[in-house]
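DM from R.C. (forwarded with permission)

"hey, sorry to bug you on a friday — could you get me a structure for this? deadline for the figure draft is monday and I only need the backbone to look sensible"
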Amino acid sequence: MEISAIEISLLTRRISAQISGYFLSSVYSMEDGALFRFNHATKPEKLVALSSFAPWMTTKNLSISQSNKFVSRLRNLIERYELVAIEQIGNERISRLSFISRKDEKRNLYSEFFSHGNLILTDPTNDELILDVANPQSFRHRTLAEGEKYLLPPSRGVALQEIDNARLAMIFQKSVESNEDQDISAIKWFGRNVGTSRKFVEEIFFRSRINPSIPLKSLDQQVIGELTKACEDLRSELEKSAEGHVLIPAENSDLDADVCPIIPRAWNVYAESKLASIQNYPSLSEALDEVQIQSLVLKKRRSASVLARGKAEELASAMAKQQLLLERNQKISKELRMTASELIQETSSAIPPDITQKLISYELMKIPVESPNQPRFVTDPKAFLKSFTPTSLASRLFDEAKRLEEANTRLAQIMLDLEKQRSALTEQTRSQEDRAVRKIVTDRRERQWFERYRWFVTSNDHLIVGGRDSTTNSIIINKYTKQDDIVFHADLHGSPFFILGNFGVREAPSDEIALELAQATVGFSSAWKDELGSADAYWIYGDQVKKSAPTGEYLPRGSFFIDGKKNLVRHIKVELSVGVTSNFPGENGQTIETRANQVAVICGPEKSIAKHCIARLKIVPGKEKSSDIARRILQQLIARTKDETAKEATKKLSIDEVIRVLPSGGYKLVSEK
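My reply, with the result:
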């Protein structure tokens, strides 16, 4: 599969339009590439796939479990860096992601989408010195290795995007003046001088209605004009296309899978000839997702049954050998009976001279080296041919035919047993492969910005966000808290901040909502780990939280000073509910969007969870480990989800997603609803 430079240009521009202001939160290994997760303070996270053939925005989980060394190093070098730009380099099949850190350290990540693909991380402040490379390589014009300067590869012709009538006419004139092979075909000349993929070269000639086989010397300015117009029409159609199409080769075809924003004429020819089929997708990114998923599925299938496949091949080889032997025995047996019948009719007492050669060709007789004139039977070395009469030899041949037929009976049984083994192995192989494929979960719900923190939705539909640790506590206060917002904290050391947005109106929360936030605050505080039965919480306004202590006092790193009156909410039971929800807060934190085919695990106060969750369970501090309780919680949530669409979505949740929403400590399951 070859994605052209113009398609790379389309994809990079579409990525750039969607991830401005995002920062890199993680990198994962992917089949023949890497998967990048980008986060934003107030927008949903985004995934960018950089494969060996193209870059695209993905909504799928394309990562593989084991990270390679290059991906691990990328995490160390550019995680938490802000993405400044993603762009195509010139008109090459190369993209560049430009990053900058909070300390103004700059990094460039080049992705090369040709040959077998490559990823190269450089330092732009040090003359594009290579810091790391996925696949170190050395070429005549450049070396891709750590410590070398990154250089672009030599250009391959003028880019399709730059072709106009004057440019193409100039290229044609240069070819004529340089005495280039005048008998070269027009399509070959065009492909050498215009840098684009073969499918687009063929498409341009089809659209221009120019015979691709005509020689270069037959071209004129009219033909150049028609080719130019075909180039312009193709570019325009590619730019306007929002769709994606995949060419899927038939089993008996030697074509390669391909992806394109349009359907080239050649694809239709392949489809009409039954050499391939065409699948259509709403976007080019979704088409690329499908190709990547199929590649992942194929690899999983092969790796899951590699031993079984090897054994099946051994059995198939053994069966083939037995079949050849069986057919040979049948043929020789038939010929022996015919020869024996002829001998019975023989009137002479001598053995006919051609009989010896026949029996040697049947591998029934051999001529000893020490006695070249005394042929003997292989199965009975003492039985010399000279001791037989035609009648007795005929009897012997009938016995040999019978022996071969009995051997064939045994061979038939052996083949039947081998076939049973092969059938069982084939079923085992299919089962192993299907089981491996079922474990591939590529569907992925788009994660919202607030899912990086503790969160729930109150019974009156307000989004509540809280810290997971001291770092996220600081982020919550510094980035998301306004002066009139309500801030909740437990009245003990080791507590998250939970924020209730007041949207510019300074007013106290209702007793009902205050109780919900207080329960969440003490539930996720150290009171849970300490197995307290109850604890107190308090609320204040955002402008009461100070980042520095009063003069003369010390404030530990990550701590805040509370100025003024605390509004206490006392004797809150330390308990929480866990549920599965299809209700997600909208952009303003109040509008609730229901997505039946998407669910999330959520943990929070009982009243909130009861309103917004499809199924729920109550937990309190206890002795059970998170991995054990999470497995039980997920099983019971699946069992108690009544809606079939939501149940299927719940089955795709992982144990890790449940563990992530639980408070720190031990657990006890006390009720389920």
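R.C.: lifesaver. Residues 5-144 form a domain with the ibrinogen binding protein from staphylococcus aureus fold fold (CATH 2.30.310.10).
me: no worries. The longest helix spans residues 390-438.
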